[in-house]
């Protein structure tokens, strides 16, 4: 990138002869090569290539205009050059150089957390040992995990002041801009103090929270060593950046929200020379005169004058594990005890924690943090801050200008009053966590002893040659836990853990409020599910996860079949009972006994010898029994389709087909019969209308001859056997002998021959 520097001097300056030129001599240059300036009064221009070689001097009215082309570094903006400012919620919603870190910060364990962390690792090791042996110690492990959670809650419910100081200084604790980007819909960062300097430790800007505009001012610490050096570790210098924004907000009527997170004002020699103390005092005086509501929130450590310079507000809120002090515990210990090792005692005496400051009426409320500190769940902490801002501003914006100024003055006038023996509690507590009275006091030593005992049990069970056999349900439950664990590891490896937890929190909130999940949230869940499935194959434990899922499917299928078989056996037993009821019916039994007596009284040896009337009775009784059984099956929830018995019908069709086939074979093989049939056809063809007696006699004679020839030629023995078999099955076809004869008549062969 190039820039042109113009110098205008009041005295005449002569340049080098080869570089000096008049406007007339340069008039011949092309328009694209000329640098024009309407303010200089020249009609001509200066070629750009000439400016890059040296200095050019032009004379007019005793003024000298000098121009030089310099190469400078292009400023890198966080947004692209072809943005559309009219796009709502687009790229211009947040304008700041602050960007998410490319790499996740390393996990930092505080000294007082290490014993519990070691216990957690031991519990995980025991669980892995149990999984390797295939033994079920889930109940014992769940009990240990529950006790671990209780111990963790107990630890954070009874933190000492110096432990809260350590949490407030945690390297991964969310910074001012982290909270701003979590709670604002739009944010535009404003830079500079209009005096030539932009303090990187102070970040200011305009932001909207739930549609309401605020001036947001806060200390900005770094998230790593490089950022901390750039941000000067959150220690502001005595420049007027925050002061300018206070006046800007007061002029335009923007409520002010300040975020305090600094170890103190920068106390180097240069800052003292520039008047660090005077700058702080000027901020204090200005803030007391601002006519807009001011809310200050301590999100980390609020140290000395650096915190107070932006902390004179109508309301001062503190995060649960933040601190606010006039001197750090280490500095206080070095002054009073002449050793920084006495910092825990100094922290206790200084009363720097949120509960202590609320009792002293210095802080006006406490904003809760998740278990483990704000760094454990930054998004949740930011939402708690947002709720506190909205509630406080709803109260302050109802005041007029005079009431706001008086409210701010009275807040600081009442600080310092003290009466022994009467504890003073906070008037306001924003979502402050109530102490869980059910928490059992479990020491780290007791929990460690239980872990070691369980470890010994697992080792002894591992040596045993007869491991316990798990039933199908227990195996499925154990495998489901392993699959869930594998899914959690895969989500963590692919970077989906935070997104999943955020959606779980939204769903839990909707369930807690007894509200149905809206379609937008359902779409987000479905979108996240699709993205997770697409990225799942990239997880390092993908093969193990798929193996467990397939095994779980097989076990679930086996369980389903087992339950289906049990249900089928139960259904069979119930159905058998209902069928037995039908056959034990007195009416059915009486009819059955009566039919038996009639059959025995008939004195026949086979069913084919029964008369048609008795056969009809048997068929009607069978239909009645079938009807009763159908009713029983339908009452049992089964769909019953009654099929007609077509065994006899199919036998008749086969018999008729056999007769036709034999007739065709006889006709085709016998020339005599074929000639008689042709003669019969010719005689029939000669007849016009009603035949006379002579013609009729000839036709009847030919028919009788054909019948006789067919009867002699056809093998009637096999056909007779088939007919006798059909007659001997009265119950199979539900037909009497008379009906069967109608189906297979004596004239059937002649009819077939005529056809």
TrEMBL record:
Pfam families: ACCA (PF03255). Residues 728-755 are annotated as: Disordered. Residues 143-395 form the CoA carboxyltransferase C-terminal domain. It is an enzyme of class 2 (transferase). Keywords: ATP-binding, Coiled coil, Fatty acid biosynthesis, Fatty acid metabolism, Lipid biosynthesis, Lipid metabolism, Nucleotide-binding, Transferase. GO terms for cellular component: acetyl-CoA carboxylase complex. One of its GO terms (biological process) is malonyl-CoA biosynthetic process. One of its GO terms (molecular function) is acetyl-CoA carboxylase activity. Its EC number is 2.1.3.15. It comes from the Eukaryota. Gene3D superfamilies: 2-enoyl-CoA Hydratase, Chain A, domain 1 (3.90.226.10). Residues 444-489 form a coiled coil. Pathway: Lipid metabolism; malonyl-CoA biosynthesis; malonyl-CoA from acetyl-CoA: step 1/1. It catalyses: N(6)-carboxybiotinyl-L-lysyl-[protein] + acetyl-CoA = N(6)-biotinyl-L-lysyl-[protein] + malonyl-CoA. PANTHER family: ACETYL-COENZYME A CARBOXYLASE CARBOXYL TRANSFERASE SUBUNIT ALPHA, ACETYL-COENZYME A CARBOXYLASE CARBOXYL TRANSFERASE SUBUNIT ALPHA, CHLOROPLASTIC. NCBIfam families: accA (TIGR00513), AccA_sub (NF041504), PRK05724.1 (NF004344). This is acetyl-CoA carboxytransferase. The lineage of its organism: Eukaryota, Viridiplantae, Streptophyta, Embryophyta, Tracheophyta. The gene is CAC3.
